């Protein structure tokens, strides 16, 4: 492929691009970069099919093209786009390029992959070629192509995530008429709709036996088999016919074992189980027998060389000359379970009493629990979710998030975690990991531990809570240091009364009164001009809306501002704190601290 540059107006989406014909792509993660630096990674293009001069279709890179279009609409022009040219006419290469490009950036749904794989097959690509091109096993390609056995409506429901993967897997086994019957049940609000494993039972009349469990040759089997189009397994259509053939082989195998000199061959029927704990290994020469364990699923397991545990005990007694009745006694635990509980509870009581004299150790243990978790600890990070894309992007790219992320990465490195971990907290409660982290924290100086605590608390501080208000109030947080007005804010302010009060705040009461009858767009323009010092207006520095300041305030008497409500909770708590309160849970008491038997050793700096 050759590299070059093309004006955006000369590019059009290709029908072979896997995103062609779908809704506009999500640009949230690339638009900020394109606005700032332009398109850096070349688009893959080829001449348009009708031979029109100087026109090229985009095979891969449609999201970058859309993002550049948004930037152009905003007045940001980085010039011609970098491109790599494909030869004209090779549809298979174009489809592969689009799939590879998009799979590396955003995993397409399986139905979209099926559509593209089918087109590749029609262009002459073999399963082996497709598997090698995309680095997946042939079985994976077959599983994707198996979706072709589904009715279009079923595929569409799967694409929209209205059907789970397990249900789709079983629907690929169903005939078209069975799929239509299943859809009819789905459309009937009063009908029971089988899904997942229940669907498999519904398709096979209550019992589905995989072909892999057969002891006989499937090619010579006279009954019907249904192929699993999602994998390489098959299922028996008639369970009774399967068991007749299976039991015939079991009887033959039993006869073979007896002929080979085994003392006995016991068939454990379906519904019972071969309990390994009740048996011991024994060779054929010492009377070991064979157990044929038949499972209700159709699977048969052959256990060669076993005796019951009592038989093995008698055999050992006879070999050592001991009386057979003496039997074999397994080693008895040193302590009973109740005694172990007694020991654990007393050690626990002593440990927590001693911790009161070692607050530095207790602090590090607390931090280890907050990060790793345990069956008593469940600490979650604030998800920072928002349905509005512009608001979400505003937060993700703000100065405060960048500053916090820098410290978070330093803490991850300090604790020996990967710097690419999204959060410090959120462990799986592994006791080994908890103890290991606790020992690592013991080696850190107090200042480093406090840095860890700050990040842990930051990640687990609930958005919109009174705790945020309390923190900002205590620190004297200046929002102007971390935030400035952006498009996302102005797009979200729709109340004209509020906009008029904001104009009065930044431009003065006289300007607000003169423009009281203007549209919201005009009022926002006045505020923007003052914040940017544009159009001859006086520049206003470090403006922060009343709702976002510490402490916050409202613009109207109507209320309904979450930050103001949180501030009211904080004020109420402070008022209550000024009054004497009875001793009880949550009240700090001045208690004598037990002194340790030996002075605490200083931590390693």
Verbal overview:
The chain is α/β, with parallel strands linked by helices and 605 residues long. Among the domains are: 2-161, Alpha-Beta Complex (Conserved hypothetical protein from pyrococcus furiosus pfu- 392566-001, ParB domain), CATH 3.90.1530.30; 248-326, no CATH class; 339-463, no CATH class. Helix content is 46%, strand content 8%. The chain is built from 24 helices and eleven strands. It has helices at 31-37, 62-73, 91-105, 110-122, 127-134, 138-145, 152-159, 165-171, 176-187, 196-203, 239-259, 309-320, 337-355, 359-372, 389-396, 399-414, 431-442, 446-459, 466-475, 487-492, 496-507, 509-514, 520-532, 562-577; strands spanning 2-6, 11-13, 43-47, 56-60, 81-85, 225-227, 234-236, 265-268, 279-281, 289-294, 300-308. A hairpin with an 8-residue loop joins strand 3 (43-47) and strand 4 (56-60). 19% of the residues are buried.
């Amino acid at each position: 492929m050759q590299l070059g540059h093309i004006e955006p107006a000369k590019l059009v989406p290709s029908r072979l691009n896997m995103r062609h014909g779908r809704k506009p792509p999500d640009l949230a993660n690339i638009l900020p970069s394109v606005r700032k630096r332009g398109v850096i990674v070349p688009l893959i293009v080829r001449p348009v099919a009708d031979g029109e001069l100087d026109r090229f279709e985009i095979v891969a890179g449609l999201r970058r093209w859309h993002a550049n279009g948004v930037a152009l609409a905003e007045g940001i022009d980085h010039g011609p786009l970098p491109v790599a040219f494909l030869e004209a006419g090779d549809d298979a290469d174009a489809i592969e390029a689009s799939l590879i490009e998009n799979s590396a950036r955003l995993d397409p749904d399986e139905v979209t992959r099926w559509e593209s794989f089918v087109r590749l097959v029609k262009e002459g690509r073999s399963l082996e070629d497709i598997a090698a091109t995309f680095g997946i096993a042939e079985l994976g390609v077959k599983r994707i192509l198996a979706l072709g056995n589904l009715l279009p409506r079923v595929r569409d429901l799967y694409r929209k995530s209205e059907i789970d993967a397990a249900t789709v897997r079983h629907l690929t086994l169903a005939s078209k008429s069975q799929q239509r019957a299943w859809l009819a049940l789905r459309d009937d609000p009063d009908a029971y709709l089988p899904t997942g494993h229940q669907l498999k039972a519904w398709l096979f009349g209550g019992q589905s036996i995989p072909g892999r469990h057969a002891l006989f040759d499937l090619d010579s089997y006279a009954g019907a088999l249904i192929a699993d189009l999602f994998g390489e397994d098959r299922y028996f259509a008639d369970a009774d016919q399967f068991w007749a053939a299976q039991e015939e082989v079991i009887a033959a195998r039993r006869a073979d074992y007896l002929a080979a000199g085994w003392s006995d061959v016991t068939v454990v029927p379906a519904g019972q189980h071969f309990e390994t704990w009740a048996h011991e290994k024994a060779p054929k020469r010492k009377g070991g027998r064979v157990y044929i364990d038949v499972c209700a699923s159709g699977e048969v397991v052959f256990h060669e060389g076993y005796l019951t545990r009592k038989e093995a005990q008698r055999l050992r007694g006879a070999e050592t000359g001991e009386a057979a009745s003496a039997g074999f006694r397994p080693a008895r635990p040193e302590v009973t379970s109740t005694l172990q509980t007694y020991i654990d509870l007393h050690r626990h009581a002593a440990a927590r009493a001693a911790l009161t004299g070692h607050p530095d150790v207790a602090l590090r243990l607390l931090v280890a629990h907050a990060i790793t978790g345990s069956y008593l600890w469940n600490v979650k990070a604030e998800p920072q979710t928002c349905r509005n894309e512009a608001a979400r992007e505003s937060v993700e790219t703000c100065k405060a998030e960048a500053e916090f992320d820098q410290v978070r990465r330093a803490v991850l490195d300090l604790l020996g975690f990967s710097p690419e971990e999204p959060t410090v907290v959120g462990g799986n409660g592994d006791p080994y990991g908890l103890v290991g982290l606790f020992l690592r924290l013991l080696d850190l100086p107090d200042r480093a531990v406090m840095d860890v605590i700050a990040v842990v608390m930051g990640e687990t501080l609930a958005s919109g809570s009174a705790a945020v208000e309390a923190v900002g109030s205590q620190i004297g947080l200046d929002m102007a240091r971390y935030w400035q007005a952006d498009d996302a804010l102005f797009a979200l302010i729709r109340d004209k009364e509020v906009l008029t009060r904001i104009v009065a705040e930044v431009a003065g009461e006289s300007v607000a009164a003169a423009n009281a009858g203007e549209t919201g767009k005009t009022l926002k323009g006045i505020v923007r001009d003052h914040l940017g010092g544009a159009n001859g207006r006086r520049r206003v520095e470090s403006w922060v809306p009343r709702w976002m300041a510490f402490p916050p305030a409202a613009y109207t008497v109507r209320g309904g501002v979450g930050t103001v409500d949180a501030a009211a909770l904080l004020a109420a708590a402070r008022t209550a704190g000024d009054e004497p309160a009875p001793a009880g849970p949550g009240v700090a008491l001045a208690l004598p601290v037990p002194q340790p038997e030996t002075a605490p050793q200083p931590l390693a700096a």
